[in-house]
Amino acid sequence: MIAPEQLIIIGSGPAGLTAAIYAARANLKPLLIEGKEPGGQLMGTTYVENWPGDKKVLGPTLMMRMKEHAQAFGTRFESGQIARVDFSKKPFTLWNNKDKEFHADAVIIATGAIPKRLKVPGEDQYWGKGITTCAVCDGAFYKDQKVIIVGGGDTAMEDASFMTKFTKDITIVQILDKLTASHAMQQKVINNPDIKIIYDTTVSEIRGDGNHVSGLSLINQKTGENTTLDANGVFLAIGLKPNTSPFAGQVEVDKWGYIKVHDGSKTSVEGVFAAGDVHDYSYRQAVTSAGAGCKAALDAQRYLS
Q1: Residue of 137, 277, 280, 299 marked catalytic
Q2: Would you say residue 125 lies in a domain?
Q3: Which of 64, 139, 151, 266 has the smallest number of Cβ neighbours within 10 A?
């Protein structure tokens, strides 16, 4: 068998690339496997305005700079995605989607999470052009504009409450006849005159002018009535799905599929670490993912030494 890599990092979003920068500076000679969507979720955003030191930077530009930073210190990159792993014995074995085999003494899982989508016409066309999944990231772009929040859970309530900083024209579209958020979160929204709620309703189409979202087509689930709603921005808050399927049965996950971590970034398998949205369902920010990548690299360095 070829000598194993000291460290393999799976994923190339802020968590994976930050881990690569720290690991490469520590002379661990990391190999980073980029994944299905190199650069992660920020590749689908426009401007990022909450990255420290950059008042305004395009998401893809930020990720390109992070990759160049990691490369400058010696990180090696491999395209493709990991399809399955064997963490039952060391060195660990990983296979990509073309059945290429890798071996590693330590692994950092930074595969992120995918926002759940509506899967309706117009969604792909206007993704990043008025459709977003992060009010904290993109809310400021919709000052005094019409915005729609799709969802009825805590995240949707948080998004709606957050958007009141920027606009007084907020509508929540909820598929059920009631909200599913916690009572405290519901009260913040229900008692706010700037927020309207439409129940029993689903989105059938996202409309636009070719360049940007202009509104939604809706269907009432009880009456079958079709209506339209104008909007400048649509915030999807229907959940995230962590990218943990390649690690099924290999590391411990919670009931939602997020990897469980302890003592920083350690997983249930010694020598395997996790960073970013693949385990973090609370904060989900680029900067917190980067911080988690830093922690994972430092933990991996200590483990390997």
Answers
A1: 137
A2: no
A3: 64
pTM over 0.85: no
Mean pLDDT calculated for residue range 104-121: 94
Is there a domain that residue 122 lies in?
A: no
* Residue 144 is a catalytic residue: no
Query: DSSP secondary structure string, 163-211?
Result: HTTT-S-EEEE-SSSS--S-HHHHHHHHT-TTEEEE-SEEEEEEEESSS
136 and 271 fall within a common domain: no
**Structural domain boundaries, residue 158:** 131-236
> How confident is residue 48, by pLDDT bands cut at 50, 70 and 90?
confident
- The question of whether 138 is a catalytic residue gets the answer yes
Q: What is the CATH number of the domain that holds 76?
A: 3.50.50.60
Catalytic residue among 86, 99, 124, 134: 134
Residue bearing the bigger pLDDT, 138 or 200: 200
Q: Which run of H or of E encompasses 161?
A: helix 154-163
